[in-house]
Amino acid sequence: MIPLSFFALVSCEKFIEVDPPSTVNADNVYSSDATAASVLTGIYTNLSKSNITEFSSGGVTSVSLFAGLSADEIKLFNPNYATYAFYYKNDLSSISAVGTANYWGTIYPIVYVANSAIEGITSSNTLTPSVKNQLLGEARFIRAFCYFYLANLYGDVPLILTSNWQTNSKLAREGTTDIYQQIVEDLTAAKGLLSQNYLKSDGFSSTTDRVRPCKWVASALLARVYLYLGDWQNAEMESSLLINNSSYKLSALNDVFLKNSNEAIWQLQAVGTGVNSNTGEGKLFVLPPTGPNNGSFPVYLSDYIVNSFENGDQRKLNWVGSVTPTSGTTTYYFPNKYKIGSVNTTPQEYCTVFRLAEQYLIRAEARAQLNKPDDAQSDLNVIRSRAGLGATPANQKQPLLDAIMKERKVEFFTEWGNRWFDLKRTNTVDALMSSVTPTKGGTWQTTDQLYPIPKTELDKSPQLIQNSGY
Questions:
Q1: Mean pLDDT, to the nearest integer, of 227-246?
Q2: Residues 168, 17: contact at Cβ < 8 Å?
Q3: Could you give the CA distance from residue 344 to residue 362 in angstroms, rounded to a whole number?
Q4: Are 457 and 465 in contact (CB under 8 A)?
Q5: CA 294, CA 154: separation in Å to the nearest integer?
Q6: Would you place residue 321 in the very low, low, confident or very high pLDDT band (cuts 50, 70, 90)?
Q7: Has this prediction a pTM greater than 0.90?
Q8: Lesser CB count within 10 Å: N end or C end of the chain?
Q9: Cβ atoms within 10 A of the Cβ of 91, count?
Q10: Locate the RagB/SusD domain: which residues (predicted)?
């Protein structure tokens, strides 16, 4: 019988070469609702861990941290701190990428589990039909979620859609067009399979926790994907579905990142206890009175972000904290969206992956591109109003697009790599980073916008070709 821990903790010593487990009997795992559901629960548990092996949940290896370092969001206290300096200075190599943030090596095992789940759930004849649909929808959503990040971090990547290790070990990289086509296919299928309600871990009981994907979670990622693809009409349509859903409302600024906030579309529930019972983001970003250091608090907010807020923007007041250590005169600003750091308290904040504010700005951008300036302006002003700002003066296409990008910068800073991805998808990364990177001690090359495939992965899979510039 396959141990459930295999699905939750499968290690991928070979990047896409997963050794065939000799004791696996998937029929046993997918013969009951409870054991089948636990496979997907294991994925969410791993995503919620903020330790040295994960790419999510705001911890020391999270994409929120490293993409923020790569962009203009976060400043490294010690620019030569080896763990982070390569990302901060945009000076990665295939060897340095093997270190702390090897996303290639941490995301593909999740893809493998999702593929195994899709196969096992599809072939099962004993699962309750509604549970079978829900779990299959969750697995397809997770696969799409993983490929979205792989494509945006690395560009072309192998498109692995089975658990057959012999087939997977021979796959070369697929173009991002094909990757995005599969993402859209998976998310469209997931929308048709997933429940409209948030469910408990049993796969059928409703809950107020927004930690297990439902139809609306798939729709949120699909709206973002259409935006990235330049499919403005579908981006407008998908985001409108969420904006018009009464289950979601913009929260007060200090309530946005609380567990089960009205604004949350999908959150990750902390799985730790004591000082680890809240978010990795809070533990990492909230500075102590002594300020940043070379240990647990290596980063703080860059001037590029701090100085981007308009006068009167309540996000700066509520989402940016500051400390001035008594030993000096320097004031350090830090992301304060998650306010509970290393405090022994009950869970109050969940790591927020998707939220309603993004859907307003997706729709605003899509409408601007569709030459609907009044509608775009209206959506943009909803977000500005929540921040205590007046209406935007932008009323034509390009000024509106510029205003929306600025709004995204101060709305989504240090959230899931959104800023880094925005710079790349709008083709503004070269112009900005050419001036920013030298201030961080590095030299920008256009090839720096994609991370290198770690050398360890290339050595194991000789059919893979490294990204240009590495």
A1: 98
A2: yes
A3: 37
A4: no
A5: 29
A6: very high
A7: yes
A8: N
A9: 17
A10: 327-470
CA 209 remoteness from chain centre: 19
Q: Which residue has the tokens 């030299």?
A: 443
**Could you report how far apart the first and last alpha carbons of the chain are, in Å?**
43
Measured distance CA(361)–CA(374) in Å, rounded: 14
pLDDT tens track for 341-366: 888 899 999 999 999 999 999 999 99
- To 5 degrees, how large is the angle CA 50–CA 52–CA 53? 90
CB 380 within 8 A of CB 364: yes
Which of the 8 DSSP states describes residue 452?
P
Q: Is the dihedral of CA 310, 315, 320, 324 positive or negative?
A: positive
Q: Which two tokens stand for residue 188?
A: 């469209």
The full set of domains in the chain, from first to last, is: 1-61+101-207 (1.25.40.890), 274-351 (no CATH)
Number of CB atoms found within 10 A of residue 428's CB: 12
- Under DSSP, is residue 76 helix (H, G, I), strand (E, B) or coil? strand
The 10s digit of each residue's pLDDT in 68-114 is 999 999 999 999 998 899 999 999 988 876 666 789 988 999 999 99
Closest CA to 212 of 201, 222, 221: 201
Give residue 257's region: left, alpha or beta (phi > 0; psi -120 to 50). alpha
